[in-house]
Amino acid sequence: IGTVKGDLHDIGKNLVAMMLRGNGYKIVDLGVDVAPEKYLEAAKVNGAGAIAISALLTTTMVQMKNVVDAVEAAGLGIPVVIGGAPVTQAYANQIRARGFAPDAASAVEEIGRLIAG
């Protein structure tokens, strides 16, 4: 889990991480301002079942597409779940993210659904 490159906001990310931990998930928190290659590296090293990314700024949302594209290009097959105040299901569809969560509780459900297959 992390906040995309260029975005330093972490309250939402921290809430999602806390709720995922509370539901028994192992979380690797990459922090804020995370470049796409860092998500890939962490996913490979830790055997991630999903990658969760957050953006609060509309100007940094484009970085979400960069993460989705990088995961696809690497052939990892790991679902990317996106969320954050300006993020919508329509945007998730547009960038081909496999999951969207409008809030922390939804993130837990969405990640669980995607991991279960």
Tell me what the structure shows.
The protein is α/β, with parallel strands linked by helices and 117 residues long. It has a single domain, classed as Rossmann fold (3-Layer(aba) Sandwich), CATH 3.40.50. The protein is 48% helix and 11% strand. It is built from five helices and four strands. It has helices at 11-22, 36-46, 62-74, 89-95, 104-116, and strands at 2-3, 51-54, 80-83, 99-101. The protein has a four-stranded parallel sheet, sandwiched between helices. The model has no long low-confidence stretch (mean pLDDT 98).
Give me a quick take on this structure:
The protein is α/β, with parallel strands linked by helices and 117 residues long. It is built from five helices and four strands, in the order βααβαβαβα. It has a four-stranded parallel beta sheet with strand order 1-2-3-4, sandwiched between helices.
Specify the overall morphology: globular
The secondary structure category is: alpha/beta
Alpha-carbon Rg, integer: 12 Å
CATH superfamily: Cobalamin-binding domain
List the uncertain runs: none
CATH architectural label: 3-Layer(aba) Sandwich
Spatial sequence of strands, sheet with the most strands = 1-2-3-4
In CATH, the topology is named: Rossmann fold
Give the biggest sheet.
Answer: 4 strands, parallel
CATH class category label: Alpha Beta
